[in-house]
Design goal:
372 residues, alpha/beta, 7-stranded mixed sheet, 3-stranded mixed sheet, globular
């Protein structure tokens, strides 16, 4: 009897998960991929806010990408906010931008990224705020893609595409594919009208909405300003779009050490305790439970091969569904997703999910050398 209950409950969990992935896949398909129109002169004014802390090694590449933007120089400003850097980031930035009239450099009036963004908003001159990070790289038409999307759709919040890049190591590949799954499923959810995630590395929002949200977002978390903003907009029925434009892709680097990787993912996971959107909470729990069952079914199949072999059918269907969605994202982001690479990741994935949740719940999480 117990065995039958286990089989039924396992089937229900995997069925719910597979249906969710099919739903996200349909959402991804529903989003029309667009391209930049180089002949359009409809470009709204933008304020780009970039907080930074100890990013001296990234600043030259950052400024080089920003200088190469095709957007009209008189229609955007960039506000850099130094968040108590202990290296020479501030002086280096000051030197790099000295000849750019639309670049501004200020000190954070508070402490942490949320306060840095608030400091940037106070300096912003325009009605649309674009946020990104100092360790990011951009296509020359990045801002143009955002501006044209604003003109065409007048969205309140625009979720931009973000990808990870790094060396050809297992850890780096794992991060790239894991992050691809987050971005692609998040885009699919947005395409279905139920957005669940976004990333401050490529986010555009109307200034008045950001100012309103800043008053109500959770301030005790070192990160999460992006997700809390998304949930704020979703609760108020704001127009939220995913920008499916390859020239709008922002790329950043994978981390080099496994401890840094788990610390980063635990930091992202820790803010889930403050989520208010029921659909997002349900998705998070379903993903966690499904991965626990992935591990349990494998162990059960080893201990009891005869009944256990039938339980493996559900994980196999899950793997196929996941791959179908991931492959669509990989094509968009031009990321290699071979089946052998995908299968190697699958072996580690349930352990990764469980460790991350435990770390986020009971461990000490750091951000930019600060305990949180």
């Amino acid at each position: 009897m117990l065995q039958l209950i286990v089989i039924i409950f396992t089937a229900l969990v995997f069925t719910a998960y597979i249906l969710l992935i099919v739903y996200f896949t349909q959402g991804w398909q529903a989003i029309k991929e667009v391209k930049v129109n180089p002949y359009s002169n409809l470009t709204p004014s933008l304020s780009i806010i970039i907080p930074f802390r100890n990013e001296a090694h990234n600043l030259e590449n950052l400024i080089s990408c920003l200088n190469a933007q095709s957007y009209p120089k008189d229609q955007f400003e960039i506000i850099f906010i130094d968040d108590e850097s202990s290296d020479d980031s501030y002086q280096m930035m000051k030197e790099l931008i000295k000849n750019h009239h639309n670049y501004k450099l200020i000190k954070n009036e508070g402490l942490g990224k949320k306060d840095a963004i608030s400091s940037g908003i106070k300096m912003a001159a325009y009605n649309y705020i674009v946020t990104t990070d100092a360790d990011c790289l951009f296509h020359p038409n990045w801002l143009l893609a955002i501006g044209q999307h604003i003109e065409q759709y007048d969205a309140d919040l625009i979720i931009g595409p973000v990808m990870l890049q790094g060396p050809d190591s297992f850890l780096s590949q794992f991060q790239t594919i894991d992050f691809l799954s987050l971005v692609t499923s998040g885009a699919g959810a947005a395409g279905c009208g139920h957005p669940i995630m976004c990333n401050a590395a490529n986010l555009t929002v109307k200034r008045e909405i950001l100012q309103e949200a800043q008053q109500s977002v959770q301030n005790k978390y070192a990160s999460g300003d992006d997700i809390f903003l998304l949930q704020y907009c979703k609760a108020r029925n704001k127009k939220i779009h995913f920008l499916k434009n390859k020239e709008a892709i922002v790329s950043t680097h994978t981390v080099e050490r496994i401890k840094c990787f788990f610390n980063q993912r635990a930091r992202w996971t820790s803010k889930s305790k403050a989520y208010t959107d029921k659909f997002t909470i349900a998705v998070a729990w379903l993903v966690f439970i499904t991965n626990v069952f992935m591990l349990m079914t494998q162990i059960y199949a080893i201990l009891k091969p005869i009944p256990g072999i039938y339980l493996l059918l559900a994980p196999i269907i899950k793997i196929i569904a996941d791959y179908g969605l991931l492959k669509k994202g990989a094509v968009f982001f031009n990321i290699s997703l071979s089946i052998p690479r995908y299968m190697k990741m699958l072996l580690a994935y349930p352990f990764y999910i469980i460790i991350t949740v435990v770390w986020a719940t009971f461990g000490m999480v750091e951000w930019k050398n600060r305990k949180i």
